[in-house]
Structure formats: C-alpha cells, structure tokens
Amino acid sequence: MAVKNGRRWNHNIHYHPRILRAVPEGALRALDVGCGEGMLARELRQAVPHVTGIDLDAPSIDQAREYPDDVDYILGDFLTRPFEPASFDVIASVATLHHMDAAPGQGPTAGASRAMFAATT
Known about the structure:
The chain has helices spanning about 10-15, 15-20, 40-45, 60-65, 110-120; strands at about 1-5, 5-10, 30-35, 50-55, 70-75, 90-95. By secondary structure, the chain is an alpha/beta fold. The chain is globular, with a radius of gyration of 14 Å.
C-alpha cells in the first residue's frame, strides 16, 4: 500500500472520488458491493444517510466492523442476498465484478448487476 499526499493510496482508492461524484443528490441508501474493510462505504456515508457494505470475506468484514461508524456491514454474497427491489439509490463497487460468478446474476439481482456493470464500464 502506497502513501500519496500523506494518505493511503492504491488503484482501488484512486476511483473513490469518481464514485462519490456520481452519487445522485438526495440519495438516501447506498450499497457498497465487495466492501472489504469498508473504506469506500465510510466515504459514501459522508454523502448518503444509510450505507450498507457487503463482502464474502469474513476477516475483511470483521476489520470493517472495528471502525466506529454507522455503516451496516453484511457478511454475504451480493448475488444471492435477498435485498428488496429498489432498496438502494446507489450501488457502488470497486474491483469486485471480476470476482463474481455471472450465473447467479441471472436471478433476482439481475437488474442491479446490470446497473453495476453499466456504472463501471
């Protein structure tokens, strides 16, 4: 992990400002898919009142939960988690899609998966 201008930096963090600029005004709920230790989720929380982070990696979720914030961290799979339709105004993800199996994305989360793909291309 490099340090740039006195702050932690890597290629994933590099995209955080771009994602944050894309958050629509008035967004109330955000989901960070593949949240890892929660860095983007915590930044999203500065712009959105309710943020949920989800990740398959238990040690990363444990690390995220160590921060004193009000982000909801879920250990689980975004593609199979039964989120209610239209439960988020923003779905963000950095360096996550290439880790996902496309087959489960054919089910209930297919619309969200397509929206995530469109936002990242």
